[in-house]
Design goal:
Helices cover 36% and strands 20% of the residues. It has 421 residues and is α+β, with helices and mostly antiparallel strands. Helix 6 runs parallel beside helix 10. The N and C termini lie far apart (61 Å).
């Protein structure tokens, strides 16, 4: 698979080539203020494919001469091996062709960040529990919450999904601190419901906005709150700062988040990882602080649609985070403090997608194509020269069948037992 990446440094008002091995384009934005919230609002300066070796000092000088003194140009290059390894990872997973995958890295010391696919937004899922618990700890620090106060678990708070409270007896009492622990360690949905009832969403939303989250949907608590690479950095940096304050609750937060379920992001050998994962409806994320030789923030976000999450999906997190762990020292040596490097890995357009062999990926691609490009399953098979019987059989094994009214493959309803005569 030959992918064309767009890699750039965001520094002041300029986006410049930052790769040596992968194909790049040079971009120029119009004003510095536009880059704050719109990372990819850019127009090509040079549409020809170029590499770092071709980006000469004369080219940089010419561009610099056109900029005002307040604007800044930075060229930053990572080791060739970093890009080669990234290529290998992307090539090894068909997921990068068919699904949205993003990553955000942030070096604590220099403020340098690297974001893969920064424009992608994802449903926040249970990652939300981390900033929400941070909000409650802030309330406690300000004397607005008593973490020893006990709340009663009732049927009204029972939630399905992850957690252990759903198996406990109604009437059981928990301190707020205990509920925070269940939220962060077990991702307990019932405990989260109890805390949201005690500390309503309005206060959380105001707190998130105060952190500097600029995307409206990322600052929500209801109606599909979102996350992107920029917001992930804001959330995890706020958690890091709270822990580093060494206040009365810093160690509580750190302990809970180092004992979180589903370790997906890896650090280096012996590194402590503070994390919170989230998984709902195909949105599968892990947001982490890696305490290595130089601490850094790392979040990996995916939208794997209808895929059944198995070992291979976890491996995406393993491979990307190990890449960062291996090159974190090089990443920390950014020339411009606060620079943001952007790498775009384009997903295949629906019209270009071949039908994958993996049944779950096949299901997702079929429904995308039926939704966006074909009026019927028959039309799809005819146009793509696909075997309708073979596809139908594969979908039936998953429990799905084609629904003409929906023009989608939908779950086959479970048969109910007929009453005995």
């Amino acid at each position: 698979m030959n992918l064309k990446y767009t890699a750039a440094i965001l520094a002041g008002a300029m986006l410049l080539s930052a790769c040596s091995q992968v194909d790049t384009e040079i971009y120029e934005t119009t004003t510095a203020t536009e880059t704050t919230n719109e990372l990819t609002t850019a127009t090509p300066v040079n549409s020809e494919e170029t590499t770092m070796s071709e980006t000469t000092s004369e080219t940089v000088a010419e561009l610099a001469a056109e900029e005002t003194a307040a604007e800044k140009i930075t060229v930053y290059d990572l080791p060739d091996e970093f890009y080669s390894r990234l290529d290998e990872i992307v090539d090894s997973y068909d997921h990068f062709l068919y699904y949205d995958i993003s990553m955000s890295y942030y070096d604590i010391e220099t403020g340098f960040s690297l974001i893969i696919n920064p424009d992608n937004h994802y449903y926040l899922a249970s990652v939300m529990k981390a900033p929400y618990m941070l909000y409650i700890y802030r309330l406690a620090l300000n004397g607005e919450a008593d973490l020893e106060e006990k709340l009663v678990y009732t049927e009204a708070f029972r939630r399905e999904g992850t957690g252990v409270l759903k198996e406990m007896e109604y009437g059981t009492e928990f301190t707020i601190e205990e509920l925070i622990g269940y939220c962060l360690e077990e991702s307990d949905n019932s405990a989260f419901a109890m805390l949201r009832d005690k500390f309503p969403e309005e206060g959380y939303v105001d707190y998130i906005k105060s952190l500097g989250v600029t995307h409206t949907d990322d600052a929500k608590a209801l109606n599909q709150p979102q996350i992107c690479g920029e917001t992930a950095i804001v959330f995890s940096r706020a958690i890091y700062d709270f822990i580093e304050e060494q206040n009365p609750y810093s160690e509580n937060l750190r302990y809970h988040m180092t004992h979180s379920r589903n370790a997906m992001i890896y650090g280096g050998e012996g590194d402590e990882v503070v994390r919170k994962y989230g998984w709902h409806g195909g949105n599968f994320h892990d947001m982490a602080i890696v305490y290595g030789e130089k601490p850094y923030l790392l979040t990996i976000m995916t939208n794997l649609d209808l895929l059944e999450i198995e070992y291979r999906e976890y491996c995406i997190f393993r491979d990307l985070s190990k890449l960062i762990a291996e090159y974190s020292t090089a990443l920390a040596e950014a020339e411009g403090e606060g620079d943001m490097m952007i790498i775009q890995i384009p997903r295949m357009e629906v019209e270009e997608m071949n039908l994958p062999k993996d049944p779950y990926m096949l299901l997702s691609v079929l429904n995308m194509k039926l939704r966006d490009s074909y009026k019927s399953f028959e039309d799809l098979c005819e146009d793509m020269d696909a075997d309708a019987a073979e596809i139908t059989s594969a979908m039936e094994k998953l429990g799905y069948a084609y629904d003409e009214k929906l023009n989608q493959f939908a779950a086959i309803p479970e048969e109910t037992e007929k009453p005995q005569e």
